[in-house]
Amino acid sequence: xxxxxxxxxxxxxxxxxxxxxxxxxxxxxxxxxxxxxxxxxxxxxxxxxxxxxxxxxxxxxxxxxxxxxxxxxxxxxxxxxxxxxxxxxxxxxxxxxxxxxxxxxxxxxxxxxxxxxxxxxxxxxxxxxxxxxxxxxxxxxxxxxxxxxx
Length: 150
Known about the structure:
By secondary structure, the protein is mainly beta. The chain has one helix and ten strands; from the N terminus they run H-E-E-E-E-E-E-E-E-E-E. A hairpin with an 8-residue loop joins strand 2 and strand 3 (about 55-60).
């Protein structure tokens, strides 16, 4: 069975996110202050073969001209996608309502992790992502991601 078919059997909602997305990531402090904002372009792909069942490509751009790019793959283990990168490690699953959930431990931020929720709108052209960050066992900040298909 191909990687894509395995993922479709275990996490069919994941494949609904295939393709290109664009929008904004905005980080907020615990008291609601905007900490950071950056434009994002994302490409989600699901290879038929190879080491990964899922590959994500991100291009970030800040108003001051800074940029960053990231590419990382996830591997299906049972009914969860697992990630191991230099910045984070963790896993994702889908709920009965086709919402994607992730638990990612940060390797680039001491004693920090976040729980991410990704909800695809009924139009399947827009989605909302919310990251709830924890550090030293307590809520730390929130990232809100609003994206749409170009």
